[in-house]
Specification:
Layout lengths: L2 H20 L2 H13 L4 E4 L1 H8 L5 E6 L3 H9 L4 E3 L7 E6 L2 E7 L4 E2 L6 E2 L6 H6 L9 E4 L5 E4 L4 H7 L1 E2 L5 H7 L2 H13 L2 E2 L1 H10 L8 H12 L4 H10 L2 H5 L2 H4 L13 H14 L7 H9 L4 H4 L1 E2 L5 E2 L3 H15 L4 H13 L13 H11 L3 H10 L6 H24 L11 H8 L5 H17 L4 H15 L3
Parallel strand pairs: 2-5, 10-11
Antiparallel strand pairs: 1-2, 1-8, 3-4, 4-5, 6-7, 8-9, 12-13
Pfam family, one: PolyA_pol
Cofactor: Mg(2+)
Organism: Gordonia liuliyuniae
Length: 483
């Protein structure tokens, strides 16, 4: 790209950003006026400016100002629908203004203790001093907002050049930046995943050299960055970078661990590459917003293979029961990262079930087996469909087509059964009250045992009439009686 082309693109992006920000005049101008009237400057800053330039401005707006937190709070009280001061000790006041979530932070000039990532909060007096302490130059651009509606682009660190080049680089030496806050190493990977940019060589080298410092960060903060990474538009690049820098060894060691294992079909360099392919194909099957649970399940579905690898006679390799081991590993790792229980169980269950379909063969499952497949998947069935289809990575076109057609047949059988019976909510034909009344017993373990017996019958045979269900229950009860 020539200098003239670069200058033209720069002008075009700034013009586009200005248009995007003009659409927020009803929020930005009144806010700027309130600050100006009280003798303060107000700047849109950070990710908000970056995203405006990239044409992806959202509903979360970040600002910085010379006003102190108490003054910010008072200014916002007069114009916001709601105001929160939960971050006021760190200089941040949040508010809801119309559809926009707003965060306004006093200029910062923090000092870090080089042990934790918690800074000694120090308020600054200049925009330049605030911007140079930020994580990356693409996040160190600002737009000064004036009460007359005018907007002034401020880029003292030339973050726009990094943005034009698609590069993630730090304002100062990356070693200093990462010593201050090691989470920035993981944030760099996350921005690669979200933006499709690359790390500057010096940033990559600094992460590799300082990777142990990530251990200073709490697992809660790490989890947030990992989720943002896996929800990114360029998540394969992000995962690869996580592994290449060595960060994965500290935060998700099971992922690089898959590089040690050749997959049983010998169609990929290793199970790690196979898992990236499955992840990519799962993303392609998504409808609507990115699916956090599906993406984690796709990436982690084979993490049990290294622990179950066996060399067979004739030179083959097997991974028997790797889905069982993998589900246990998922639970252990995701609990260590303090994921919500529901997310842990959903991802683990998908990993546990992802091989079940391969017992279907050429449609040889009974209706009972189909019912159990649907029941075991429960609300995860749609995700399981996507995961199983994504797990077909064979390069043999005929085999790939046959696998997809076989799964089409399974989905068709599920649809037919769903029309004939309440397949999404398989329950016994008698409830607990009916069981107690018929058997003449009170609440207790026997009621649950009888209920589970009837549910097994329901799965095996489908819906029964009440008379048949009662007859089956009586026969079961007679077999339980000691006399």
């Amino acid at each position: 790209m020539t200098d003239d082309q670069r200058a033209e693109r720069r002008s075009r992006l700034l013009a586009s950003a200005a248009v995007a920000l003009r659409s927020l005049d009803d929020v930005l101008t009144p806010l700027a006026t309130r600050f100006t009237d009280r003798g303060h400057d107000l700047y849109l800053v950070g990710g908000s400016v970056r995203d405006a330039v990239l044409g992806r401005l959202g509903n979360d707006l970040d600002f910085t100002t010379d006003a102190r937190p108490e003054a910010i709070f008072e200014i916002l009280k007069g114009c916001a629908d709601a105001v929160w001061d939960t971050g006021i000790d760190f200089g941040t006041v949040s508010a809801q203004i119309g559809d926009q979530m707003v965060e306004i932070t006093t200029f910062r000039a923090d000092m870090y203790d080089q042990v934790s990532r918690n800074p000694t909060v120090t308020f600054g007096d200049t925009l330049d001093g605030d911007l140079i302490r930020r994580d990356f130059r693409v996040n160190a651009m600002a737009v000064r907002l004036h009460s007359d509606g005018q907007q002034e682009f401020c880029d003292p660190l030339d973050g726009l050049s990094d943005l034009l080049a698609g590069v993630i680089d730090t304002p100062a030496a990356p070693e200093d930046s990462f010593n201050d806050d090691p989470l920035r190493m993981l944030r760099g990977v996350r921005f690669v995943s979200q933006l499709g940019f690359v790390l500057a060589p010096r940033v990559f080298d600094a992460i590799v050299a300082m990777v142990d410092q990530i251990d200073r960060i709490t697992v809660e903060r790490i989890r947030v960055e990992l989720d943002k990474m896996i929800l990114g538009e360029h998540l394969i690049d992000g995962v690869d970078l996580l592994v290449e820098t060595g960060l994965a060894e500290h935060v998700l060691p099971e992922i690089p661990g898959m590089k040690l294992t050749i997959d049983e079909h010998h169609q990929h360099k290793d199970v790690y590459q196979h898992s990236l392919t499955v992840l990519r194909q799962a993303v392609d099957l998504e409808t609507g917003d990115p699916d956090l649970v599906l993406r984690w399940a796709a990436l982690l579905h084979d993490i049990g293979k290294p622990a179950t690898r066996r060399h067979e006679d004739g030179g083959g390799v097997s991974f028997h029961h790797h889905e069982v081991v993998g589900a246990k590993m998922v639970r252990k790792r995701m609990r260590a990262l303090k994921y919500p229980k529901a997310v842990v169980e959903d991802v683990a269950q998908l990993v546990f079930l992802h091989l079940r379909f391969h017992g279907y063969g050429e449609g040889r499952w009974t209706d009972s087996a189909v019912r159990r497949y649907v029941t075991d998947a429960g609300p995860l069935l749609d995700r399981l469909h996507k995961l199983v289809r994504a797990d077909c990575t064979t390069r043999n076109k005929r085999r790939a087509r046959r696998l997809q057609e076989t799964y089409d047949d399974l989905e068709h059988r599920i649809a037919v059964l769903r029309e004939a019976e309440d397949l999404d909510r398989v329950r016994p034909d008698l409830d607990g009250n009916a069981i107690m009344e018929l058997l003449g017993i009170g609440p207790g373990p026997l009621v649950g045992k009888a209920w589970r017996h009837l549910k097994e019958l329901r799965l095996d045979a489908g819906p029964m009439s009440r008379d048949d269900a009662e007859a089956e229950l009586k026969a079961w009860w007679a077999a339980q009686s000691p006399d």
